[in-house]
Description:
It is built from eleven helices and 13 strands. It has helices spanning about 35-45, 65-70, 70-80, 85-90, 110-115, 120, 140-155, 215-220, 230-240, 260-275, 280-290, and strands spanning about 5-10, 30, 35, 50-55, 100-105, 125-130, 135, 155-160, 170-175, 185-190, 205-210, 245-250, 250-255. It has a single domain (about 5-260), classed as Spore Coat Polysaccharide Biosynthesis Protein SpsA, Chain A (Alpha-Beta Complex). The strands form three sheets. A nine-stranded mixed β-sheet has the order 5-4-1-6-11-8-12-10-9. A two-stranded antiparallel sheet has the order 2-3. The radius of gyration is 20 Å and the shape is globular. Bound molecules: 1-O-phosphono-alpha-D-glucopyranose.
Amino acid sequence: MNKVTKAVIPAAGFGTRFLPFTKAVPKEMLPIIDTPTIEYIVKEAIESGIKDILIIISEGKECIKTYFGKNGDLEQFLTEKGKTQEVSLLKRIPSDVRISYIYQKEQLGLGHAVLCAKEFIGNEPFALLLGDDLYVGEEEPVTKQLIQAFEKTNSTILGTLEVAKEDISKYGICSPKEKKMDRLVELNGVIEKPKAEEAPSNLAIGGRYVLTSTIFKYLQSQQRGAGGEIQLTDSIMRLMVEEKVYSLAVAGKRYDLGSKKGFLEATVDFALKREDLKPITEDILNNKKGL
Length: 291
Ligand code: G1P
C-alpha cells in the first residue's frame, strides 16, 4: 500500500473576511500570537509524518514563500550577536521536509485549487489541509488520525465534526451509508453547503482529507457547483462510483479561523497554553471581567 507522505495546503484565496488586512498581507500570515496560522497547518502535516508539502498560492502571496525560505542575512546577523535562541526560531522546519509552491491563476474554487496539485501528487494518496480549520488534536494530530484510517481502509477519508443545524449550510455534509455511530463510517454521498432541511446529516467536512489520486480524474471534468465554484465535494461524490469513501470523526478541538470569533478564541487558548504568556493572559482576562 502507498504511504501518505505528501500534503497539499491551498492558500490562494482572497481572504475577504479579514479585509482590510488581507488587501496587503495574505490571511495565512495572520499571526496567532507570534506564529502565522499557516505554520500551525504545516506543523500538523509534519507531525503527521508528511515529508513533501505543496502550498497553492496566488499572485501577491509571495511572502508565504519568503516566510518558509532561508533568510541568510538575518541568520548571520543574529549569529554574530550571539542570539542563538532567535536563530533557532528561523529554523523550525526540519531539513528532511520539502515545501514547494504552485500558483493557482484563477480563483475558481477549492476543487480547482486541488487540481493544481495533480503533477506534484502523481498517483499517490495525499493529505489535504485547509488553512481556515485549525486543530489541536487529542493525542495525535488530526491529519495523523486520518492517515491511520487510510492505512486501515486504503480509501479516501474525510475528517468530520458534528455541527449545529444553523451551521449546516456552511459546510460539505456527509451522508453515512448506515446509521451507525462509529467514528469511521462508509459514505454513500456528500453534498456541498446544503440547506439544513435537505441535509442528510449534521456530519460536516472539517477541512482535513486524505484523498486517493483518482480524485484528479473527476476534478478535471468538474462543473461549477455551489456558489458558482468548482467544488471538491462534488468530485468526491462522483469518485464514490469507483472507490469507497469514508468519514472519520476527528478527535480534537477545532478553531474556525475563517471567523473572527474562532480567531480570537485560538489566540486566547494558545496564549493560556504558553508558560511565558499564561500569567499575563489570565491577568488581562481577569481584569476585563468587570467591563
Ligand atoms: C470548504 C469545503 C467544505 C468544508 C469546509 C470546511 O468550504 O468546500 O466542504 O466543509 O471548507 O471548512 P469553505 O469554507 O472554503 O467555503
